[in-house]
Amino acid sequence: MTNLFTALQLGRYQLQHRIVLAPMTRIRANRETLAPTALTATYYAQRATPDGLLITEATHISPEATPVWTIYPNVRKYGDHVPGIWTDAQVAGWRQVTDAVHAKGGLIFCQLLHTGRVAQPDIGQHPLIHGAQVPLPPVSASATAIEASAEVGNQYNWDVAATPPRALSATEIQRVIRDYQRAAENALAAGFDGIELHAAHGYLIDQFLCDGVNVRSDNYGGTIENRCRFLVEVVAALAAVVGADRLGVRLSPLAIDPDTGKQTQTYFGVTCSDPVALHAHAIQALNQFKLAYLMLTEPRVGGLSAAPEEEEAYVHPLRNVHYRDLYEGTLIGAGGFTPNTAKDAIAAGVYDLIAFGRWFLSNPDLPDRLRQGHPLTVYDRSTFYGGTEIGYTDYPTWENAQHHPKYRLLAQQQIGATLKTARPTAKL
């Protein structure tokens, strides 16, 4: 694992290893304030290492940006919420988190998100928002509804139809950009070392990028350059607040599978007729900013639902290799990496760092386990979203894992090793 443990300059920061905590929705914010809690601070502090990078869960920039994730049983049971960063209480909650991470010598970036048409009107009934004169969801690049399909499930909530969004006017687009800027200012006030712009996975910026949603005829629609305009303007606005060397961006490049004629992945029904050309243009456009990093999600991430020994996504080859030649800065890879494929991707120069989600969730000491070759604690999928400290802060470190009856251990080489269908070893 030597490749994972070499130093790297990331923007203005010197990292001591290449293992990043990926942003992961956890839905455990305070139900009244939508602020992080002391438990949130414990969660991130557990995963902090000296000069190692953590990226927060998606943090919502305004009420309009905030979804209510009742598609998840735990959220329905506990009434949990995702965190925001538009109020003083939320900033104070995040300050607890950053203080706890910094006390262990770690670095932490706040991922900022507007979910666009994925957020639904239910958030307007929350006591924090009810009666306030603020814009509410859903909004999008165009008034294009989330449609029911085999890929999406049943529109939005699996059992609740999505409310069609209204298209943001040109004036409102500038207001949303200011919302991003205020969120970035709040992130700095909360003590974050930097921010990441979530521009992926079918959320608002992705809805502008992709012509399956964006059917505008103004300067924000039509051509690839126009559809990338909102992304570029948001990045410029955020760089003006925090500095480009403290700013990351996340994209989720797609392609058309030649065997099926369909996209290699679909997020919330967002489709694109020219995904490779689109993302090539977007990635090259980001070169002008000299960002701290660009994170790319491998499209195999959507298949990660089987037992880890039998998970085919863990042995799928990388799809984003060709973007390495287009992007001039630091690249982080995310989505379906194992310890071995992570070190291979770095050795080949495809990515500079690897973001782990599920495995960092269930192994708070993941960098040390990878360094030492220790078995990994297997994640419990049923506790991913919402709930209590179970599946959140109760995962053991290696010194306790061997005597922990609740969670099982898996040798690193066994990840994806006993597949039901024979596949070659993962390739770059």
Report on the structure:
By secondary structure, this protein is of the alpha/beta class. It has a single domain, classed as Aldolase class I (TIM Barrel, Alpha-Beta Barrel), CATH 3.20.20. Helices cover 26% and strands 12% of the residues. It has 12 helices and 15 strands. The chain has helices at 38-46, 73-78, 88-103, 170-189, 204-209, 224-227, 229-242, 275-286, 339-347, 358-362, 366-372, 398-401; strands at residues 8-10, 13-15, 19-21, 53-55, 59-60, 107-113, 139-140, 166-167, 194-198, 247-251, 293-297, 331-334, 353-356, 376-377, 409-410. The strands form 4 sheets. Strands 3, 4, 5, 6, 9, 10, 11, 12 and 13 form a 9-stranded parallel sheet that branches. A hairpin with a 2-residue loop joins strand 1 (8-10) and strand 2. Helix 1 (38-46) runs parallel beside helix 3 (88-103) and helix 4 (170-189) runs parallel beside helix 7. Mean pLDDT is 93; it is low at 152-156 and 421-425.
CATH class category label: Alpha Beta
Low-confidence stretches: 152-156, 421-425
Mind describing the biggest β-sheet?
9 strands, parallel
Distance between the termini: 17 Å
Estimate the strand proportion: 5-15%
Number of folding domains? 1
Shape: globular
Per CATH, what is the topology? Answer: TIM Barrel
CATH architecture: Alpha-Beta Barrel
Assembly status: single chain
What count of helical segments does DSSP give? Answer: 12
Determine the fraction of residues in helical runs and give it as a percent range: 25-40%
